[in-house]
From TrEMBL:
Gene3D superfamilies the UniProt entry points to: 3.30.230.10, GHMP kinase, C-terminal domain (3.30.70.890)
Family (UniProt): Belongs to the diphosphomevalonate decarboxylase family.
Keyword Lipid metabolism: yes
Protein name per UniProt: diphosphomevalonate decarboxylase
GO cellular component assignments: cytosol
GO MF entries: ATP binding; diphosphomevalonate decarboxylase activity
Alphabetical list of Pfam families matching this protein: MDD_C, MVD-like_N
UniProtKB keywords: ATP-binding, Lipid biosynthesis, Lipid metabolism, Lyase, Nucleotide-binding
Amino acid sequence: MEPTNHPITAKAHTNIALVKYWGKKDEQLIIPQNSSLSLTLDEFYTETSVAFDDTLTTDTVQFDDHLLSAQASQKITTFLDVVRELAGITTRANVITHNHVPTAAGLASSASGFAALAGAASRAAGLTLNRRDLSRLARRGSGSATRSIYGGFAAWQMGEDDQTSYAYPIAEQVDWDIVAIALVLTTAQKKVSSRDGMRLAVNTSPFYPTWVQSSQADFKTIETAIASRDFETLGHTSEQNAMRMHALTLSSDPSFSYFNADSLKAMALIRELRAAGTACYFTMDAGPNIKILCQGQDAPTVMSQFQQVFGPESVVLTRPGNGIQISD
Ligand code: ADP
Ligand code: DP6
């Protein structure tokens, strides 16, 4: 395989999991304990360009205009090693990446980050992967990145090995008016990474086996709700699934939580809005920021409530986003 003689750029969006991935059965290959399902979001994304260059002796990574130290770029170098092995090359690479999403704040920068890196690096290394194989490659960087190859609703089938653990599209063109309102309560980086948090749950939470079972049931329920455009079932089941995931953090040893006081305040407000008749539901990843699921018709009401409480700059309207785009 011959690397390209020019940089390749890829753009990938983050996704919000409606059925969460929380726990691995193979840490090395990132094979999960449960299948997961997500919605790709248009407002948050990563753009990454990669060029393999014979004159380099190490990989260099420019991350949001800062040059990373070798230690800080270790995860990216490890990922590039997977790409090099696939392409049969040893050449080092220049990576330039920009996150249009806060990094490590529970807004899924690892999903868009590793999906974009997988797309740009594989193409720059001379590989032409189909989207299933690209999703398998992105998985090696970060589990949630597996799903960010596709737009709209996507699923990651857990599988049992490298070949069978990949994402597939459920509905790339979402033709119903579903939105996710992101409440950016803090952009501080989390103390417990998703990787460490889920490992602790697998190893110590007595509820872990129940999570695996119930998330399987949630997957089927949401799949059916998408097919029949049943927003209330989709919203309700997503919210339950998120809270069950967070119950694993509370029941780990040592116990920890991704909630902060504002997350709890936001959840209470969503419950109040719902009690007053607005169909809105929350979900939350590994960080205190909340995503509110609602239908487009209700978005102005929901947004104005949250803007009043948390300030206009904290409330970001996102719609279903596209799958990965790779420049030639
Ligand atoms: P988040 O909630 O933002 O996904 P995680 O702790 O799960 O937080 O993942 C953050 C990690 O994802 C970063 O420390 C980094 O290793 C990786 N990451 C984020 N953005 C990028 C990017 N643009 N390119 C490569 N890796 C990235
Ligand atoms: C709560 O994909 O960031 O967002 O595979 O260890 O990199 P690693 O973890 P990561 O975890 C995502 C956890 C989650 C749920 C989800 O996106 O499915």
